[in-house]
Write a structure and sequence with these properties.
Number of helices: 9
Oligomer: single chain
Number of domains: 5
Structural class: alpha+beta
Bound molecules: zinc ion
Length: about 500
């Protein structure tokens, strides 16, 4: 300001000069008049001419003005009243150009100020315009370029801002915290900061620069939903995060239903820098509970009951890592501490329902001399009963009591068989077979050859049974018949 005032003062003084010259000129005329003889007609003529000249001079001085012309690179852009005013307007233009950078812009354009006397009307018509000057002057400011592998990617106002961008970039991916001790974070690329002169419009703020480095030149592509796709799977396939997939498709949430064949957008973000970080993390991890299945005859066939609910445990894991832009590339567990132990889930399953395939023989159906498998009271006969069709006879017995093969033959089934419980089928040939059900224990296996009267199992109450007994069937060519017709 002081400088500007001084300029103004200086300039006002200069403005007086032409008026001073005007006085001097008049004095000269006066002296000239004194020295001549006024009686001569020649002189009268000269005097008249003098008056005309003086008049013209006065007229010239009263219709013109002293001004300062402003030229940029040799081109006159207009006039200011004086140099101070001209310089002030140029400063304002440079300040305007630097606005937002916190600097007054500079220019390498050649700006000149020339004092002139011009016609008042011409002056009035060509008063320097701020807008014209703003447009004409090419500004630059001092900036700092961030270069990646020698190539400038972004301009900041100064080195401090550039450093701030790079630090924030590292923090974005490393996320240091109480449980994440970052030992080192280095860029994989060669990053340099270079002092430059830059057009103010090319400057980016710290946040803008950070955003640009993180996203790079985002590439948008389309993706066709595949069968069994989920947002998670799509993200996995495209090396993206679920949030990124959703963000590229306005209105989408994790609950949005997607259909195979549907086309969605994927905006692939490729950060310009890779932060390789090393450190130690302490994380709480879940210990998933085990599931143990037991078979229980107390549970209905095909059903299952949770006997003991499982509960996840928790452990604290300390590991050393190497990450690239937040993705783990190396992980070494250094310590593991169980906080709570998991509780095993126990599921009790009912006996497995198996389709009983019995490869029994086919034939005449003649069998000679079947013997009773168990001696005991018949508690239920073959045929229709209140509960439906009864395919055999029930012979009363106590659990653990031995029963016997009705005839010699080959064991074709020995195992649990749904409602029959533990059960045996013996093929006797000629299309005749016998079945022994609800056993507590089986003493033979599939493929065994058994002789007539051999102890093959023990009485029980397994399967669909209300008390210990032996359910005995005679099967001829795949269909049950009344056993009493075959027993002595
Ligand atoms: Zn029965």
């Amino acid at each position: 300001m002081i400088q500007a005032r001084q300029y103004l003062k200086k300039n006002k003084l200069k403005e007086h000069i032409p008026r001073f010259s005007q006085v001097k000129l008049l004095t000269r005329f006066a002296n000239f008049f004194k020295s001549i003889s006024w009686k001569s007609p020649k002189i009268i003529g000269i005097s008249a001419l003098g008056v005309i000249i003086i008049g013209a001079g006065v007229f010239y001085l009263s219709t013109t003005v002293v001004a300062v012309g402003i030229t940029v690179n040799g081109k006159n852009l207009g006039y200011a009243q004086n140099k101070a005013e001209a310089e002030q307007i140029v400063q304002e233009v440079l300040r305007k150009h630097g606005e937002g950078s916190g600097q007054v812009a500079q220019t390498s354009d050649k700006i000149e100020y020339e004092k002139v006397r011009i016609n008042k009307n011409e002056y009035a018509a060509n008063i320097i315009s701020f807008a014209v000057l703003l447009n004409a002057v090419k500004p630059y400011i001092n900036g700092c370029a961030i270069q990646i592998n020698g190539e400038t990617v972004v301009y900041l106002a100064d080195e401090e801002q550039a450093d701030s961008v790079l630090t924030k970039y590292k923090e974005y991916f490393t996320k240091p915290s109480d449980t994440n001790k970052v030992d080192s974070a280095e860029f994989e690329e060669e990053v340099t900061k270079v002092a430059v002169q830059v057009h103010p419009n090319d400057l980016k703020s710290v946040d803008e620069a950070l955003d640009y480095l993180l996203k790079g030149d985002a590439v948008e592509k389309e993706y066709t939903i595949q069968k069994d796709d989920s947002f998670w799977l799509i993200a996995r396939k495209n090396d993206m995060l679920v949030e990124e997939v959703l963000a590229a498709n306005p209105g989408f949430t994790e609950d949005t239903i997607i259909q195979p064949g549907q086309v969605i957008k994927l905006t692939k973000v490729e950060p310009l820098l890779t932060v390789v970080s090393k450190g130690t993390k302490v994380v709480k991890e879940t210990i998933p509970f085990d599931v143990k299945t037991i078979t229980s005859t107390k549970v209905a066939s095909g059903k299952s009951v949770v006997q003991q609910a499982g509960k996840d445990g928790e452990k604290e894991v300390t590991y050393k890592y190497v990450e690239k832009n937040g993705r783990t590339v190396e992980k070494t567990v250094v310590k593991e501490e169980v906080i709570t132990k998991p509780v095993t889930q126990i599921i009790a399953k009912g006996p497995v329902v198996r389709t009983v395939y019995v490869g029994t023989s086919r034939g005449s159906g003649s069998v000679s001399g079947l013997q009773w498998p168990l001696s005991g009271r018949i508690t239920s006969y073959y045929g229709y009963r209140s509960g439906g069709f009864h395919s055999g006879i029930d012979i009363d017995g106590v659990t653990g009591q031995p029963y016997y093969a009705a005839s010699a033959g080959k064991v074709v089934l020995a195992g649990y068989a749904g409602g029959y419980g533990y059960c045996i089928i013996i093929d006797h040939g000629n299309g005749v077979a016998t079945r022994y059900a609800h056993s507590s224990k089986l003493l033979v296996g599939v493929g065994d050859q058994v002789s007539k009267g051999q102890n093959i199992g023990l009485v029980g109450s397994t399967g669909k049974s209300t008390g210990s007994h032996l359910h005995f069937e005679v099967i001829v060519n795949g269909s049950t018949v009344n056993p009493l017709n075959y027993l002595p």
